[in-house]
Amino acid sequence: MKDLTPEETEELHSELLALNEELQLQVDISAAESRPVDLDEPIGRLSRMDAIAQQNVALANRRSAKLRIERIKSAIQRIAIGEYGNCLACGELVGLARLKVQPEAPFCIACQSQREARGSVSAIRPSGRG
Ligand SMILES: [Zn+2]
């Protein structure tokens, strides 16, 4: 595998900036959708449960969007200091093919699958509120 060319880095950089904007928008929209459900609202039991379920989905989506934004920001910082494209765990190249799919990817495929196998990727838990 070879290092990213300046052109490739530049392309991934603009991809990251676009993704960042898109996700930020998504977070803003879901913030509006995940308002607490008003239990005094005169709606049926089923639709109230629907509303709560929808709210949980919106919260989970927002959490993963926020997590992705964090990764994108850190990738943009790594571009600035010239360390972008290297795996944070082993230092090997993450690889252009992988970065094209997921420009914020902090780990190479080997390290990523190791982490997933260890179960360090936190499961989505239901909201504690309510
Ligand atoms: Zn690695």
CATH topology: Four Helix Bundle (Hemerythrin (Met), subunit A)
Specify the structural class. mainly alpha
Please compute the radius of gyration using only Cα atoms: 19 Å
Measured as a percent range, the helix fraction is 55-70%
According to DSSP, the number of beta strands is 0
Task: Name a few traits of the molecule.
single chain, 130 residues, mainly alpha, Four Helix Bundle (Hemerythrin (Met), subunit A), 62% helix, binds zinc ion
Description:
- The protein has a single domain, classed as Four Helix Bundle (Hemerythrin (Met), subunit A), CATH 1.20.120.910.
- Helix content is 62%, strand content 0%.
- The relative contact order is 0.15.
- The chain binds zinc ion.
- Zinc ion (ZN) binds next to helix 4.
Q: What's the short story on this structure?
A:
The chain is mainly α and 130 residues long. 62% of the residues lie in helices and 0% in strands.
